[in-house]
Amino acid sequence: MNTTLPFSESAERNQKPIAQVLKDFITKQDRNIFEIGSGTGQHAAYLGSCFSHLDWQTSDVKSNHSTIQAYIDRANLNNLLSPIEFEVGKTPWPRKRFDIVYTANTLHIMSWKNVKTTLKSVNKIMNEGGQFFIYGPFKFDGEFTSESNEKFDLMLKENDPQRGIRNFEDIKTNLEKNNLMFTNKIEMPANNMILVFTKITKQEDKK
Question: Distance between CA atoms of 110 and 37, rounded to whole angstroms?
């Protein structure tokens, strides 16, 4: 491991379990993927190697681009695309359409306003039949799934009151208003989950 690069232990641990789940859903007909919040770029580098037929578009705030690009350069894969500047609520959404949208550990570090913006807007960049994968911790019926998640939520709110672990039902309701139907949830290690939503109806972009 090149110790000069920022390194996320959690990303290193969870990338293989995430890949195993995604392999059950992503098909050879899927052509591209947009990652909301690529962080260090570790997920893109590893998952990009697992799905070499997908053009993997990374994104994040500008300050993270050099690290993401370094992981992309080290992976040396033709399907990994340099990061675009993207921050929910501050920058425009991509004009391109994608078969897959993926995000990991982002909703609990956004404000609820920006979470709702994400859930309202994501369908505009998705092809009909496209899938949206959300990885992270969630509450169900307002209840935490573990004591560790409850402590994590408290820590998030202490750092920023607008942050926090989101309620599954709120995510589901907001996405279903925008033509993304809940299709699956998969329990993951360390009290995380992957939620899967599918765009089921064609909708014209609002200009």
Answer: 11
DSSP state of 93: P
Domain boundaries, the chain: 9-199
What does each C-alpha distance from 24 to 17, 18, 83, 126 come to in angstroms? 12, 10, 26, 19
pLDDT digits (tens, 9 = 90+) for 6-39: 889 989 999 999 999 999 999 999 999 999 999 9
Q: Which CATH number fits domain 9-199: 2.40.10.10, 3.90.25.10, 3.30.450.280, 3.40.50.150?
A: 3.40.50.150
Read off the pLDDT of residues 115-137 as tens digits, 9 standing for 90 and up: 999 999 999 999 999 999 999 99
Q: Determine contact, residues 110/104, Cβ cutoff 8 Å.
A: no
What's the one-letter identity of residue 43? H
d(CA 128, CA 202): 6
In sequence order, the 6+-apart residues with CB closer than 8 A to the CB of 147 are none
Neighbours of 133 (CB within 10 A): 22
Backbone angles phi, psi at 6, to 5 degrees: -55, 145
In sequence order, the β-bridge partners of residue 143 are: 140
